[in-house]
Amino acid sequence: MAMKAVVEVYRLTKTFGSVRAVDSVSFFVRRGEIFGILGPNGAGKTTTLRITIGIIPPDEGEAYILGYNVHKEPIKARMFIGVVPEISNPYPDLTIWDNLMLVGKLYCLPKRVLVERARNLLEALRIQDVRNRKAKALSKGMRRRLLLAMALISDPDILFLDEPTSGLDVISARIIRSLLLELKKQGKTIVLSTHNINEAGMLCDRVAIMNKGRIIASGTPEELKIKFGKYIRILLRFNKEVGIDVIKNKVRNGNVVVQGAKVMIICGLSDLENVLNEIADFIKSHNLEVEEFQASGPTLEDVFVELIQGDGQ
Amino acid sequence: MTFLSIKNTLSKIFALCLKDAKLYYFKGPTVVMGILMPMFLWLAFSIGAGYSLVKTLPMLIAISAFFASSSITPIIMPWETRQRTLEMLLSRPVTIYTILLGTALASTLFGILISLGLVCISLLLNLTPQNPLLLFLGVAISSLCYSFMGLLFAAIPTDVPADVVFLSSAIRLPLVFVSGVFIPLQKLPYYILPLAYSSPLTYLSDLLRSIYYGTSFLNPLLDLAILSFLTVMFAFSTLITNKATLLKRL
């Protein structure tokens, strides 16, 4: 490990009835990185996070935050973290301001510090104008921003977010994402769970992909693309329209989609050389000119789908 | 435990107490259960039995302390489970014990406030307590005792407040009728006495009879000692049972 791990999770296992929700999950998170836990619904992401922050105990395994065992020393561990759980709410009958003050007092913050931080956070999250509005009168996006403000009021070293932008409008989601990137610049460590692969690709330094309670792959998005990516996309724009049957006859090693003069070919990495040769033959035999050419490797979403399908879902 | 950690824990308990006071103790149902219901019970008894309302005012103080302190505490945990605010609190540096103590403190203060309000009214009506210190101690300790008793019902791991209200009412109402509030312990049939001793309200009502009329069944200090013992017992039972059922709420 180049940098010190601030979150360490060892062989967490949790069973609800006959369902093994988390199955021997281990990971670590380095200081200052954004670590994403990805997975389809029901993969065990939320349970993993809830165990990691000490809300529920594991059947087996241990979790440490900054060296504190979260189940043996939960208060010490939680002093350093901020949490935005998926299944929790601010007090609906308290105002935004009162919700923030309450949480700040639970961290025993001096009043002057608390007030100053609350003002800055409300401004950063663009909810300062509605600070006297009760939480029950807020939109989902604003409520989520309030929860984020509540998580940040103690200026935590590590932030845990469960599906931070799930179900939010584009503006609220962007505000939250840009704040997370800003926090990363300030050196904060962020652990987030999401099923939004694009979001994880945008934000995360490293990800762990979970399915059926297990981590089936982990690494940087680039590492995962290289290790598990199997397909490549080739985009071509010719000087004239081409018929799909005509090109399909020539390019046999890839899936072809044609829209006017534009052609997209998806092929396996192992077939790339053959496909390129077939394209070259096609261009020559039909006397075409290529006006645009793009080739792109697998996306994180491709890798995710590949891994989940490969895992039997 | 260091001085600083005790100070921090107390400050968290106080913050949670203020939250509960703000959210739960200035609401319609609270007023109904804490003030109006005891008042109607007292009016029905006093008028029905032909007693002077002023003379039976101490009984209203006892019933009000009982209802004000024990009516809201059972529903706070189910309500917070339902609102999903409990998990929000538990993800902060607080334990379930801190949350429960904050709730108990809020309802104790509410019980004391309501009772002392009635004491002030009784003073205006020239009904003077013979021992104000004992009166305050009795009201304060019994309010704390009834708060923890109410919180014991909150250990039922449900997010439907009505479930808990049903059970707590089914137990608390009989406790009022066997407590000696309406009929002094001296006049209770001997076979009811064991039941009367099982009601925590008995000791406050007996204490108030001593403070206002000088005619108690037990020694007032014994009343106070038993109330203190019950407080400790309810406090431990509440903390243990609520902790034991917490996971079923999450």
What is the topology?
The complex is a heterodimer of chains A (about 325) and B (about 250).
Chain A lengths: L4 E12 L2 E12 L3 E5 L6 H8 L7 E6 L2 E2 L4 H5 L2 E4 L11 H11 L4 H14 L15 H13 L5 E5 L7 H16 L3 E6 L2 H7 L2 E6 L2 E6 L1 H8 L2 E8 L5 H7 L4 E5 L2 E7 L3 H14 L4 E7 L3 H11 L3
Parallel strand pairs in A: 3-8, 3-9, 6-7, 7-8
Antiparallel strand pairs in A: 1-2, 1-4, 4-5, 9-10, 11-13, 11-14, 12-13
Helix pairs in contact in A: 3-4, 3-5, 8-11
Chain B lengths: L2 H22 L3 H22 L7 H14 L2 H11 L2 H5 L5 H29 L7 H22 L7 H17 L15 H6 L1 H14 L6 H30 L1
Task: Write structural notes for this entry.
The complex is a heterodimer of chains A (313) and B (250). With 313 residues, chain A is of the alpha/beta class. Chain A contains eleven helices and 14 strands. Chain B is mainly alpha-helical. Chain B has one domain (3-249). In chain B, 48% of the residues are buried. Chain B contains eleven helices and no strands. The radius of gyration of chain B is 18 Å and the shape is globular. The chains are: A alpha/beta (313), B mainly alpha (250). Chains A and B meet through helix 2 and helix 3 of A and helix 1 and helix 5 of B.
Short description:
The complex is a heterodimer of chains A (313) and B (250). Chain A is an alpha/beta fold.
Distance between the termini of chain B: 28 Å
* CATH top level class name of the largest domain in chain A: Alpha Beta
CATH homology group of the largest domain in chain A: P-loop containing nucleotide triphosphate hydrolases
The pair of chains with the biggest contact is: A-B, 29 and 22 residues
- Strand tally of chain B: 0
Q: How many beta strands in the DSSP annotation of chain A?
A: 14
Order of secondary-structure elements of chain B: HHHHHHHHHHH
Using the coordinates shown, work out and report the CATH topology of the largest domain in chain A: Rossmann fold
Major β-sheet of chain B, in short? none
What oligomeric state do these chains adopt?
A: heterodimer
State Rg of chain A.
24 Å
- Fraction in helix of chain A: 25-40%
Q: Low-confidence segments of chain B, ≥5 residues, pLDDT <50?
A: none
- Mean pLDDT across residues of chain B: 90
